[in-house]
Amino acid sequence: MDNNNTIKTEDFWNPEHIVEKFWNGLAEGKILARKCKECGAIEFPPHLACNECGYHETEWTELSGKGVLKSFVFTGILNARLELEDKGVKYVCGEVQLDEGPSINAIILGVSKKKGREIEPKLPLKVKPVFFDMGRYTTLFFELDED
Amino acid sequence: MVQNVKLGKNMRSVSIVGIGATPFMNLIKNDTYHGLTNGELFGHAALDAMKDAHIEPRDVQYFFHGSANPHVLNHCITPNVQVADWFGMRGKGSLSHSEGCCTGYIALEEAVFAVASGAYDIVLSGACDMGTGMPDGNTPDHMRVEMSTEILFPDLDSIFDRAYGRYLGGGPGMNHDDWINLYAHENNLTPDEIDDVLNHQSYHMRRAGALCPRAVRRTTFDEMAKEAGYDDVWEYMKSPHNPKMTQYLRTSSDSCVADGAAACIVVPTEIAHQFTDKPVEVLATGASVLDAIVPHLEKKATAEAARQVFEATGLTADDMDLLFVNDFIGSSAFLAAEEIGYLPKGEGWKYVLDGRIAYDGDKPINTNGGRTSYGHAFGASGMADVFEAVTQMRGEAGLRQVKKLPKHVFLRGFGGAQNVRATILRAGF
Ligand SMILES: [Zn+2]
């Protein structure tokens, strides 16, 4: 292809920084994902290739962050998220399916034991994104969309 | 996920002809064992496996060393190099591998590949972890201290994806209870009913552990209840003596961390009878790996690995006489049994309540007591299950011998958030 041995390394190999772009996006309130160029599936969180159909190429897309909570569990002493316990936040861990298709295990804020028992029979329930400041980075959690 | 893997036939059939295992123990608290090292534990398991196959170290051509976390637990990165001299294999080829708590099952898969390919004829594969302690600073290996929470807790997250999942947080938090929670809802079981099922399961696992000299927990729950002043063991199981550690799991359904090693020798099946009268053929291993961010990953990966191995062997769950499930999450045992079809869909919980999954039941699971009783030396647990599987198939399990001598045994490996393997063994005699 290119037999020019004097070419700068950075000129022929300069990939996008996918992980960095994702986290920078969250800091700006944007949820970035990748979309498969063959089957159209949304790859979230973003990776290089498509895990739905196994095609090699995806492109950037932005998600609304809206979705539904399909199931959740409370944590206990063995599996608590210490970074949240330290902040005194009420949360559960659950399966969130985003409106654009992909499902992930996520953290849902604002659900106490009492609230959890109330909402469990009503699942699935709508959720919306929370861009949560962890100090050195901003992460993506969810909360019930009760509007 | 794309599910299009069709396992091919090995270039040649491979059989297990030797097994060895140390007990699972607490090396920090047990004065008899305190001071033993990784090289010694692995070395004893390896030499026992060679002795069982009637060979000497000089006969072995290659070995695998598995451990879940050699850096934190043993402050080393290539343990294969550091253990080789302990059992006479200096200068031979070897490999270290580390797949969390699935390591010991993958240890068997790798050894089979090495022989099936034709590259080697006699291969040792073992796994060793010393989970109760850590090096006492920068000192020789026999000097170990109890694992401290300051070291352990920050390190636990290292099995979760550092690009995303660890910091999005849901996967790590759902690791223990996602599947049992889903099962409870799918089958309309109340939290109390699930509690009963898990307590009965732990109870029967312990009955097996009590009869297994290598198990770390050998006191039955009946004895523990009596000791604590309870006439009714089921009341004891729900008491503060057995507190909830997660939404669903009590201490009795949590793994008991241990130190230990296990190993096996594999050779081509065509020469297996030169080493033992009772070779055990490794028919095939299905594999699936899903990161903790994927909802219901344990159920999905178990189903996929089982599909692969059943298709490759032409066997069904009805052909299986005994099942091993890596159950460091206690609920996994009957859930995985149901997922692969060993127990009927939606009815696994009844089999547990009726004790049918016990070593003396008609659908035995984890006859060594599993992780909640045999103990959990992380990477070594899978190979300890292989040791017990072969022992049962040979009919040498003593008081915990299952009623029907197993012809086929299914092993469901799991670990490292999360690797899954599904292996079927067949008695070759
Ligand atoms: Zn695709």
What is the gist of this entry?
With 147 residues, chain A is α+β, with helices and mostly antiparallel strands.
Task: Tell me what the structure shows.
In chain A, a hairpin with a 4-residue loop joins strand 5 and strand 6 (103-109). Chain A has two domains: 1-63, no CATH class; 64-147, no CATH class. Chain A is elongated and about 70 Å long. Chain A contains four helices and eight strands, in the order H-H-E-E-E-E-H-E-E-H-E-E. Chain A is an alpha+beta fold and 147 residues long. Chain A starts with 8 loop residues before the first helix and ends with a strand. In chain A, the strands form two sheets. A five-stranded mixed barrel of chain A has the order 4-5-6-8-7. Chain A has a three-stranded antiparallel sheet with strand order 2-1-3. Chain B is of the alpha/beta class and 429 residues long. Chain B has a domain at 14-154 and 256-273: Thiolase/Chalcone synthase (Peroxisomal Thiolase, Chain A, domain 1, 3-Layer(aba) Sandwich), CATH 3.40.47.10. In chain B, 34% of the residues lie in helices and 17% in strands. Chain B has helices at residues 38-52, 70-74, 79-83, 103-116, 149-156, 165-168, 170-174, 178-186, 191-210, 221-227, 233-237, 297-313, 332-339, 348-353, 370-373, 379-394, and strands at residues 14-21, 62-66, 93-97, 123-130, 133-135, 144-146, 259-268, 280-289, 322-325, 408-415, 419-427. Chain B has a nine-stranded mixed sheet, with helices on both faces. A two-stranded antiparallel sheet of chain B has the order 5-6. In chain B, a hairpin with a 3-residue loop joins strand 10 and strand 11 (419-427). In chain B, helix 4 (103-116) crosses helix 16 (379-394). The longest helix of chain B is centred in the middle third of the chain and has 20 residues, at 191-210. Chain B is globular and about 55 Å long. The two termini of chain B are 39 Å apart. The model of chain B has no long low-confidence stretch (mean pLDDT 97). Classes of the chains: A alpha+beta (147), B alpha/beta (429). At the A-B interface, strand 4, helix 3, strand 5, strand 6 and strand 8 of A face helix 6, helix 7 and helix 8 of B. Bound molecules: zinc ion. Zinc ion binds next to loops of chain A.
